[in-house]
Amino acid sequence: MSLVVPVGKDDHVKGPEDAPVTLVEYGDYQCPGCGAAYPMVKAIQKHLGAKLRFVFRNMPLNEIHPNAEMAAEAAEAAGAQGKFWEMHDALYEHQDQLGPDLASALAKRLHLDVPRFEEDLGSRRFRDHVKRDFMGGVRSGVNGTPTFFIDGSRYDGMLDEQSLEGALRQRIA
Amino acid sequence: MTALVSGTIAPNFSLQAAPDKRLSLAEFRGRPVVLVFYPADWSPVCGDQLGLYNELREEFAKSNAVLLALSVDGVWCHAAFAKDRHYHFSLLADFEPKGEVARRFGVYRETDGFAERALFVLDKEGVIRWSYVSPIGVNPGADGILSALEALPGSAA
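Above: the input entities. Below: the C-alpha coordinates describing the complete assembly.
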Protein backbone atom coordinates (compact mmCIF):
# COMPACT_ATOMS: atom_id res chain seq x y z
CA MET A 1 0.00 0.00 0.00
CA SER A 2 1.25 3.47 -0.70
CA LEU A 3 0.51 6.97 0.39
CA VAL A 4 -2.01 8.65 -1.92
CA VAL A 5 -1.58 12.12 -0.43
CA PRO A 6 2.03 13.28 -0.83
CA VAL A 7 3.62 15.30 1.94
CA GLY A 8 2.61 18.90 1.32
CA LYS A 9 2.00 22.31 2.77
CA ASP A 10 -0.94 21.16 4.90
CA ASP A 11 1.31 18.77 6.78
CA HIS A 12 3.12 19.13 10.06
CA VAL A 13 6.70 18.33 9.28
CA LYS A 14 9.72 17.90 11.49
CA GLY A 15 13.11 17.62 9.83
CA PRO A 16 14.60 18.96 6.61
CA GLU A 17 12.60 18.85 3.39
CA ASP A 18 15.53 17.20 1.60
CA ALA A 19 16.11 14.57 4.29
CA PRO A 20 17.02 11.21 2.71
CA VAL A 21 14.08 9.44 4.33
CA THR A 22 10.52 10.48 5.23
CA LEU A 23 8.41 8.81 7.90
CA VAL A 24 4.67 9.56 7.94
CA GLU A 25 2.61 8.50 10.92
CA TYR A 26 -1.16 8.25 10.98
CA GLY A 27 -2.00 8.48 14.65
CA ASP A 28 -4.72 8.94 17.21
CA TYR A 29 -3.91 10.82 20.42
CA GLN A 30 -5.98 8.47 22.55
CA CYS A 31 -4.73 5.21 21.02
CA PRO A 32 -2.49 3.26 23.41
CA GLY A 33 -0.45 1.90 20.50
CA CYS A 34 0.27 5.44 19.34
CA GLY A 35 1.17 6.39 22.89
CA ALA A 36 3.66 3.53 22.90
CA ALA A 37 5.04 4.59 19.51
CA TYR A 38 5.58 8.18 20.61
CA PRO A 39 8.82 7.70 22.62
CA MET A 40 10.01 5.29 19.95
CA VAL A 41 9.69 7.90 17.21
CA LYS A 42 11.33 10.47 19.49
CA ALA A 43 14.30 8.19 20.00
CA ILE A 44 14.58 7.47 16.28
CA GLN A 45 14.42 11.20 15.49
CA LYS A 46 17.30 11.72 17.89
CA HIS A 47 19.33 8.90 16.37
CA LEU A 48 18.78 9.91 12.75
CA GLY A 49 18.86 13.70 13.22
CA ALA A 50 18.69 15.64 9.98
CA LYS A 51 18.52 12.44 7.95
CA LEU A 52 14.86 12.02 8.92
CA ARG A 53 11.80 14.00 7.97
CA PHE A 54 8.82 13.10 10.18
CA VAL A 55 5.20 13.92 9.38
CA PHE A 56 2.19 13.38 11.65
CA ARG A 57 -1.34 13.05 10.28
CA ASN A 58 -4.58 12.55 12.18
CA MET A 59 -6.44 9.27 12.28
CA PRO A 60 -8.82 9.56 15.25
CA LEU A 61 -10.98 6.48 15.83
CA ASN A 62 -13.72 8.35 17.61
CA GLU A 63 -16.12 5.56 18.48
CA ILE A 64 -13.56 3.81 20.58
CA HIS A 65 -11.56 6.89 21.59
CA PRO A 66 -14.06 9.63 22.47
CA ASN A 67 -11.38 12.27 23.13
CA ALA A 68 -9.31 11.58 20.03
CA GLU A 69 -11.04 14.04 17.73
CA MET A 70 -10.90 16.86 20.26
CA ALA A 71 -7.21 16.18 20.81
CA ALA A 72 -6.51 16.14 17.07
CA GLU A 73 -8.28 19.47 16.64
CA ALA A 74 -6.43 20.87 19.67
CA ALA A 75 -3.08 20.00 18.11
CA GLU A 76 -4.17 21.63 14.86
CA ALA A 77 -5.34 24.72 16.74
CA ALA A 78 -1.96 24.92 18.45
CA GLY A 79 -0.41 24.43 15.02
CA ALA A 80 -2.25 27.52 13.77
CA GLN A 81 -0.30 29.38 16.48
CA GLY A 82 2.99 27.79 15.48
CA LYS A 83 3.07 25.19 18.24
CA PHE A 84 1.82 21.99 16.67
CA TRP A 85 4.70 19.80 17.79
CA GLU A 86 4.70 21.20 21.30
CA MET A 87 1.01 20.30 21.65
CA HIS A 88 1.44 16.94 19.87
CA ASP A 89 4.21 15.98 22.28
CA ALA A 90 2.39 17.25 25.36
CA LEU A 91 -0.79 15.35 24.45
CA TYR A 92 1.10 12.09 24.13
CA GLU A 93 3.08 12.77 27.29
CA HIS A 94 -0.19 13.22 29.20
CA GLN A 95 -2.23 10.64 27.31
CA ASP A 96 -3.64 9.19 30.53
CA GLN A 97 -5.31 12.55 31.31
CA LEU A 98 -6.61 13.24 27.82
CA GLY A 99 -9.72 15.43 27.71
CA PRO A 100 -10.87 19.02 27.15
CA ASP A 101 -9.44 20.13 30.51
CA LEU A 102 -6.03 18.85 29.53
CA ALA A 103 -6.15 20.66 26.18
CA SER A 104 -6.95 23.97 27.91
CA ALA A 105 -4.27 23.46 30.53
CA LEU A 106 -1.69 22.65 27.87
CA ALA A 107 -2.72 25.69 25.81
CA LYS A 108 -1.93 27.87 28.84
CA ARG A 109 1.30 26.08 29.58
CA LEU A 110 2.43 26.51 25.97
CA HIS A 111 1.59 30.22 26.16
CA LEU A 112 -0.92 30.05 23.35
CA ASP A 113 -3.49 32.74 22.77
CA VAL A 114 -6.01 30.81 24.85
CA PRO A 115 -9.23 32.61 23.81
CA ARG A 116 -8.29 32.05 20.17
CA PHE A 117 -7.45 28.41 20.89
CA GLU A 118 -10.79 27.87 22.64
CA GLU A 119 -12.62 29.63 19.81
CA ASP A 120 -10.94 27.38 17.24
CA LEU A 121 -11.95 24.29 19.20
CA GLY A 122 -15.48 25.55 19.86
CA SER A 123 -16.11 26.41 16.22
CA ARG A 124 -14.59 23.10 15.08
CA ARG A 125 -12.34 25.09 12.78
CA PHE A 126 -10.05 22.11 12.15
CA ARG A 127 -12.68 19.41 11.80
CA ASP A 128 -12.33 19.35 8.02
CA HIS A 129 -8.55 19.24 8.22
CA VAL A 130 -8.71 16.22 10.52
CA LYS A 131 -11.28 14.55 8.27
CA ARG A 132 -9.06 15.13 5.22
CA ASP A 133 -6.15 13.52 7.03
CA PHE A 134 -8.37 10.60 8.03
CA MET A 135 -9.76 9.92 4.57
CA GLY A 136 -6.35 10.32 2.94
CA GLY A 137 -5.19 7.68 5.38
CA VAL A 138 -8.06 5.35 4.57
CA ARG A 139 -7.39 5.69 0.84
CA SER A 140 -3.72 4.95 1.43
CA GLY A 141 -4.50 1.70 3.20
CA VAL A 142 -4.18 2.85 6.79
CA ASN A 143 -5.79 0.00 8.68
CA GLY A 144 -5.43 1.00 12.29
CA THR A 145 -3.30 3.23 14.42
CA PRO A 146 -0.50 3.87 14.40
CA THR A 147 0.24 3.22 10.74
CA PHE A 148 3.59 4.33 9.36
CA PHE A 149 4.69 5.02 5.80
CA ILE A 150 8.35 5.09 4.87
CA ASP A 151 8.98 7.13 1.72
CA GLY A 152 5.36 6.57 0.80
CA SER A 153 5.16 2.80 1.34
CA ARG A 154 3.20 1.33 4.22
CA TYR A 155 5.45 -0.16 6.88
CA ASP A 156 4.06 -3.56 7.87
CA GLY A 157 7.00 -4.64 10.01
CA MET A 158 7.23 -5.01 13.76
CA LEU A 159 6.43 -1.92 15.75
CA ASP A 160 9.50 -1.66 17.87
CA GLU A 161 12.25 0.90 17.78
CA GLN A 162 14.90 -1.38 16.36
CA SER A 163 12.76 -2.68 13.51
CA LEU A 164 11.37 0.71 12.51
CA GLU A 165 14.75 2.40 12.74
CA GLY A 166 16.31 -0.43 10.76
CA ALA A 167 13.76 0.01 7.98
CA LEU A 168 14.44 3.76 7.90
CA ARG A 169 18.21 3.28 7.83
CA GLN A 170 17.87 0.97 4.85
CA ARG A 171 16.50 3.92 2.89
CA ILE A 172 19.45 6.12 3.82
CA ALA A 173 22.14 5.39 1.30
CA MET B 1 -11.12 -23.43 -1.01
CA THR B 2 -11.46 -20.49 -3.39
CA ALA B 3 -13.41 -17.35 -2.64
CA LEU B 4 -16.41 -16.62 -4.87
CA VAL B 5 -15.40 -14.23 -7.60
CA SER B 6 -16.86 -11.12 -9.17
CA GLY B 7 -19.91 -11.82 -11.27
CA THR B 8 -21.22 -14.62 -9.01
CA ILE B 9 -24.62 -14.23 -7.41
CA ALA B 10 -24.02 -14.19 -3.67
CA PRO B 11 -25.66 -17.17 -1.95
CA ASN B 12 -28.45 -16.07 0.34
CA PHE B 13 -28.17 -16.72 4.06
CA SER B 14 -30.08 -16.04 7.21
CA LEU B 15 -28.12 -15.63 10.44
CA GLN B 16 -28.66 -14.34 13.92
CA ALA B 17 -27.61 -10.73 14.39
CA ALA B 18 -28.75 -10.52 18.00
CA PRO B 19 -30.26 -12.95 20.48
CA ASP B 20 -33.73 -11.98 19.24
CA LYS B 21 -32.99 -10.95 15.67
CA ARG B 22 -32.18 -12.73 12.43
CA LEU B 23 -31.04 -11.05 9.24
CA SER B 24 -31.05 -12.49 5.77
CA LEU B 25 -28.98 -11.19 2.92
CA ALA B 26 -32.06 -10.99 0.68
CA GLU B 27 -33.51 -8.27 2.92
CA PHE B 28 -30.90 -5.90 1.58
CA ARG B 29 -31.70 -6.40 -2.10
CA GLY B 30 -31.82 -2.93 -3.63
CA ARG B 31 -28.77 -1.75 -1.70
CA PRO B 32 -25.08 -2.52 -2.09
CA VAL B 33 -23.81 -4.82 0.65
CA VAL B 34 -20.32 -5.04 2.12
CA LEU B 35 -19.69 -8.47 3.65
CA VAL B 36 -16.76 -8.69 6.02
CA PHE B 37 -15.72 -12.19 7.08
CA TYR B 38 -13.23 -12.16 9.93
CA PRO B 39 -11.64 -14.85 12.09
CA ALA B 40 -12.72 -13.98 15.61
CA ASP B 41 -14.22 -11.42 17.96
CA TRP B 42 -11.72 -9.82 20.37
CA SER B 43 -8.58 -10.60 18.39
CA PRO B 44 -6.44 -7.46 18.05
CA VAL B 45 -6.32 -7.21 14.28
CA CYS B 46 -10.07 -7.70 13.90
CA GLY B 47 -10.81 -5.03 16.45
CA ASP B 48 -8.76 -2.54 14.43
CA GLN B 49 -10.28 -3.57 11.14
CA LEU B 50 -13.88 -3.38 12.30
CA GLY B 51 -13.10 -0.22 14.28
CA LEU B 52 -11.98 1.42 11.07
CA TYR B 53 -15.19 0.43 9.24
CA ASN B 54 -17.15 1.74 12.19
CA GLU B 55 -15.62 5.18 11.61
CA LEU B 56 -16.53 5.04 7.92
CA ARG B 57 -20.28 4.82 8.28
CA GLU B 58 -20.77 8.14 6.47
CA GLU B 59 -18.62 6.97 3.60
CA PHE B 60 -20.55 3.72 3.20
CA ALA B 61 -23.80 5.67 3.48
CA LYS B 62 -22.79 7.76 0.47
CA SER B 63 -23.22 4.58 -1.57
CA ASN B 64 -26.32 3.60 0.46
CA ALA B 65 -24.35 0.48 1.33
CA VAL B 66 -25.02 -1.77 4.29
CA LEU B 67 -22.11 -3.35 6.16
CA LEU B 68 -22.45 -6.85 7.62
CA ALA B 69 -19.62 -8.54 9.50
CA LEU B 70 -19.55 -12.30 10.04
CA SER B 71 -17.54 -14.67 12.17
CA VAL B 72 -18.11 -18.08 13.72
CA ASP B 73 -18.54 -16.53 17.18
CA GLY B 74 -21.91 -16.96 18.84
CA VAL B 75 -24.51 -14.28 19.18
CA TRP B 76 -23.79 -13.45 22.85
CA CYS B 77 -20.11 -13.10 22.17
CA HIS B 78 -20.92 -10.78 19.26
CA ALA B 79 -23.25 -8.75 21.48
CA ALA B 80 -20.56 -8.22 24.12
CA PHE B 81 -17.93 -7.40 21.51
CA ALA B 82 -20.17 -4.92 19.66
CA LYS B 83 -21.13 -3.21 22.90
CA ASP B 84 -17.53 -2.93 24.06
CA ARG B 85 -16.41 -1.42 20.74
CA HIS B 86 -19.50 0.71 20.06
CA TYR B 87 -20.07 -0.89 16.67
CA HIS B 88 -22.97 0.49 14.68
CA PHE B 89 -23.33 -2.40 12.28
CA SER B 90 -24.48 -5.99 12.61
CA LEU B 91 -22.18 -8.81 13.61
CA LEU B 92 -23.69 -12.02 12.28
CA ALA B 93 -23.13 -15.37 13.98
CA ASP B 94 -22.02 -17.98 11.43
CA PHE B 95 -22.27 -20.36 14.35
CA GLU B 96 -24.57 -23.27 13.56
CA PRO B 97 -23.79 -25.11 11.41
CA LYS B 98 -20.43 -23.64 12.16
CA GLY B 99 -18.91 -21.61 9.33
CA GLU B 100 -21.59 -22.69 6.85
CA VAL B 101 -21.91 -19.25 5.26
CA ALA B 102 -18.15 -18.76 5.10
CA ARG B 103 -17.97 -22.16 3.37
CA ARG B 104 -20.56 -21.13 0.81
CA PHE B 105 -18.52 -18.03 0.01
CA GLY B 106 -15.36 -20.13 -0.21
CA VAL B 107 -13.61 -18.42 2.69
CA TYR B 108 -13.64 -21.01 5.49
CA ARG B 109 -10.35 -22.27 6.93
CA GLU B 110 -11.05 -25.92 7.64
CA THR B 111 -7.90 -26.53 9.64
CA ASP B 112 -8.42 -23.49 11.85
CA GLY B 113 -12.19 -23.67 12.17
CA PHE B 114 -12.81 -20.02 11.38
CA ALA B 115 -13.25 -17.74 8.40
CA GLU B 116 -10.63 -16.04 6.31
CA ARG B 117 -10.25 -12.30 6.59
CA ALA B 118 -12.28 -11.76 3.44
CA LEU B 119 -14.21 -8.88 1.92
CA PHE B 120 -17.05 -8.96 -0.62
CA VAL B 121 -18.84 -6.03 -2.19
CA LEU B 122 -22.25 -6.90 -3.64
CA ASP B 123 -24.23 -4.67 -5.95
CA LYS B 124 -27.88 -3.92 -5.26
CA GLU B 125 -28.89 -7.01 -7.26
CA GLY B 126 -26.88 -9.18 -4.88
CA VAL B 127 -24.13 -9.95 -7.39
CA ILE B 128 -20.55 -10.02 -6.12
CA ARG B 129 -18.66 -7.19 -7.78
CA TRP B 130 -15.41 -7.34 -5.83
CA SER B 131 -13.80 -9.72 -3.41
CA TYR B 132 -10.54 -9.86 -1.55
CA VAL B 133 -8.98 -12.38 0.80
CA SER B 134 -6.33 -10.80 2.99
CA PRO B 135 -3.42 -12.68 4.50
CA ILE B 136 -4.90 -13.79 7.83
CA GLY B 137 -2.72 -11.55 9.99
CA VAL B 138 -3.01 -8.45 7.82
CA ASN B 139 -5.74 -5.90 8.28
CA PRO B 140 -6.93 -5.09 4.74
CA GLY B 141 -8.09 -1.57 5.57
CA ALA B 142 -10.98 0.02 3.71
CA ASP B 143 -9.58 1.52 0.52
CA GLY B 144 -10.50 -1.53 -1.58
CA ILE B 145 -14.09 -1.50 -0.31
CA LEU B 146 -14.54 2.22 -0.98
CA SER B 147 -13.12 1.92 -4.50
CA ALA B 148 -15.36 -1.08 -5.21
CA LEU B 149 -18.45 0.76 -3.98
CA GLU B 150 -17.61 3.76 -6.13
CA ALA B 151 -17.16 1.52 -9.15
CA LEU B 152 -20.67 0.06 -8.85
CA PRO B 153 -22.97 1.04 -11.70
CA GLY B 154 -25.12 4.00 -10.75
CA SER B 155 -22.86 4.93 -7.88
CA ALA B 156 -23.25 8.56 -6.93
CA ALA B 157 -19.59 8.87 -6.01
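Note for the figure: The helical segments of chain B are 44-55, 57-62, 75-85, 100-104, 143-151.
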